[in-house]
Amino acid sequence: MKGSPVKLDSAAKAVVTALWLSLGVFVVFPFVRLLWITFTVDGAPSLGTLIPVATNWYNQLAFRNSLLLGLAVATCGTALGFLFAYGVTRLHLSKPFTWIINAVVMLPLISPPFTSSIALTLSLGPNGTLLKLFGLKSIGFYGFSGTFISETLTYFPIAYMTLATVLSRLDPNLEDAAYSMGASPWRTFRTVTLPLSLPGVANSFLLLFAASLADFATPLVLAGHSFPVLPTQAYLQITGLYDLKGGAALSFMLLAPALAVYALQHLWLEKKSFVTISGKSGGRSSVKGPGPAARTAMMGVMDLVLAFVLYLYGLILWGSVVKVWGVNPTPTLQNYAYVFSFGRKAIMDTLLVALIATPLGGLLAVFVGTASARWKIRGRKTLETVSLLNYALPGTVVGIAYVVAFNSKPLVLTGTISVLVAAYVFRYASAGIRQVIATMQQIDPSIEEASASLGAGSGRTFRLVTLPLVLPAVLSGMKYLFIHSMTAISATIFLVSVRWSLLTTRILECMTELQFAHACAFSIVLILIVFVAGGVLNLLARALYRGRGVA
Predict the structure, then answer these.
(1) Cβ partners under 8 Å of residue 13, min gap 6
(2) DSSP-assigned states of every residue in 216-252
(3) Which of 545, 483, 523, 419 is nearest to 29 (CA)?
């Protein structure tokens, strides 16, 4: 329900001013600086930087490869996510098996984006375990095939979570009506279930395409020179050739498809109907699944994928406790001793950055969400759009933009913890912002208006009325931000320094130096930290709900 916007007092005006200032510094300024360095030469407008990069045949190949990989991952990942979502919501699975599915699917979401790359390399790369098992020498794993498999396994859980929600909200009476008219399970699925779930399918496709387009680490490990993609080319242009202008131009080539995906997703969601409960309703029939043949086939695919994911993570665990992978399989804890000695700084730095960024991101989400959905200010929609811009851009683009913006005057932040925290807050607070806005749209504005009519200022109303109502959305967004602050790498790979190290960069260093056992140990430690922190946030949320009398 939408009400009239709330007029601002001095406290709210100060918050809005702070929001615009922070977004201007950490979102708009880096983006403008990126455009400036790309389209100017010696301070004058010019295409002299962009044209040589864009017309280079190898960069054009990388651009086409990025689109091809994104389309392939989005198609297969969405199909796999739909299969799991349909199975959970339509096959009447037991609760223990459903719990196993959710637990296994969560593993890629709380892992670094290239964790599956490590396990797949140990399985299908040179001297891989599966190659030995089947007596194969090589299957051409590096290049498109390995990158495609790894990204699909990494990102299909996003589609699963999106589509499981969509399918669970479909009225089963509609499918039951088709069955009662003599339609077969396949016809019911084709004419009822699939058309009604198309908004979720399209949204999942766009999300996975954007995620693949922005992925930097997986192609760096698996794609190689035979299958270049733009994010890795931009990274190598800057770190290998020390060509900041060329890297900025390459990152700009990513902007067009990335912004196109964001625009399509936004337009689709704007047209999508969010009505799930109508004024008329009857008894809800039980959800009917497909026939026995389809059920058997679906269960077979799901079991195979679950077993393969568990095998990959089991392989990472095993790889973390052997002396030298593929050479000396003697069990040892030396790899963990290495992690907690030489890698201790990376652990502490990563935790510190995440612990600072998480509450700041929560504050940003609740203030931007409230200002966009409630307060009477000019440019409310612009404020929301700008706050989500860094998330719409690939991480590589954001990282390069931050290097360009904060590596020289007037604001020098590179090499400090501030730039790392800012990169995470203004990129990953987007999930919390969206959830707060969605929650605010479901809250009757008269509740806050009643507080104002009793003489409470905007600050008191916000603290005692608004914040408790949006607290679940804020905590959910904070959990999302913490996970990504621990596991993301595409933006911050350009921002780390000798003073500040991150776990994801240490894992990547181990991979490039072929120290697989150390990389596995780092990955296990990181996964455990994220898992424990997620559990703590869940317990905190439950404690807060009980304290407020919420069941």
Answers:
(1) none
(2) -HHHHHHTTTTS--HHHHHHHHHHTT--HHHHHHHHH
(3) 419
Q: What is the mean pLDDT of residues 385-408?
A: 86
Tokens encoding 323: 């002396």
pLDDT digit string, tens, across residues 334-353? 999 999 999 999 999 999 99
Q: How is residue 240 written in tokens? A: 């290998």
18, 379 Cβ separation under 8 angstroms = no
CB 402 within 8 A of CB 338: no
DSSP assignment letter at 494:
G
Cβ atoms of 399 and 492 closer than 8 Å = yes
N-terminal to C-terminal alpha carbon distance within the chain: 24
DSSP structure string for 154-172: HHHHHHHHHHHHHHHHS-H
Residue 317: pLDDT band (50, 70, 90) is very high
**316 to each of 112, 319, 327, how far by Cα in Å?**
13, 5, 16
Chain-centroid distance, C-alpha 271: 23
pLDDT at 454: 62
Closest Cα partner for 70 from 172, 163, 151? 151
* Tens of pLDDT, residues 55-92: 899 999 999 999 999 999 999 999 999 999 888 888 88
pTM comes to 0.81
